[in-house]
Amino acid sequence: MNRRAMIKTFRGLTAIILPLTLALGACSGGGSTEQAAPRPPLEGAAIGGPFTLVDKTGKAVSWSDFDGKYRIIYFGYSFCPDACPIDVQKMMQGFALFEKAQPQLAAQVQPIFVTIDPARDTPQIVGEFAAAFSPRLLGLTGTQAQIDAAAKSFAIYHAKGKETEGGYLMDHSRTAYLMGRKGEAIAMLPVDKAPQDVAAELAKWVK
């Protein structure tokens, strides 16, 4: 992701998270010695929303299909030369560690990969890409309008790069979200760190 995309993503997330932080700070009392339970860092953030896309078989898949389950969601594309494979690998390696430690809880989590390049990522291709990282990872694609709407609701920046002889690249946010049983935002998973950090974050919030 280039510097412009990083700045846009940072500003967008800051606009969502900062008011929440200030509100929480204003409401906290100073006299209690008891330590309150940690609150999800994205609690109350306007991230996420309904969508309908298709899986590797062309079957329609809606966000509401996962109601009652936690969800991990990452937006990227299969032709990505470096960032997406690295992020998704860490995400799914971390999930595998969590699944090994707490299989019953992991069974209640659905990892999802959504392409931001539907022109090239057909249902078959996005399915093969997801399966390369884990049989648990669900790959989704759709029309450009459907993808744009889904990405917008999750505050994901994406833009097509210049055409070259070798094709084109996509600029996009590198964010893996953990969402709750009702589709609410909980936290960003640290895919920029080690798989163990991803597993620890899942263990912290998936109950």
Overview of this protein structure:
It contains six helices and nine strands, in the order H-E-E-E-H-H-E-H-E-H-E-E-E-E-H. The longest helix is centred in the N-terminal third of the chain and has 25 residues, at 3-27. Helix 2 crosses helix 6. The chain has a five-stranded mixed β-sheet. It has a two-stranded antiparallel sheet with strand order 1-2. It has a single domain (3-25, 42-205), classed as 3-Layer(aba) Sandwich (Glutaredoxin), CATH 3.40.30. The protein is globular and about 55 Å long. Helix content is 38%, strand content 18%. It has 207 residues and is an alpha/beta fold.
- Distance between termini? 33 Å
Determine Rg (CA atoms, Å).
17 Å
Succession of helices and strands: HEEEHHEHEHEEEEH
Number of domains: 1
Query: What is the share of helical residues?
Result: 25-40%
The CATH homologous superfamily name equals Glutaredoxin
Give the key terms.
two-stranded antiparallel ribbon, 38% helix, alpha/beta, 9 strands, 207 residues, single chain, globular, 5-stranded mixed beta sheet
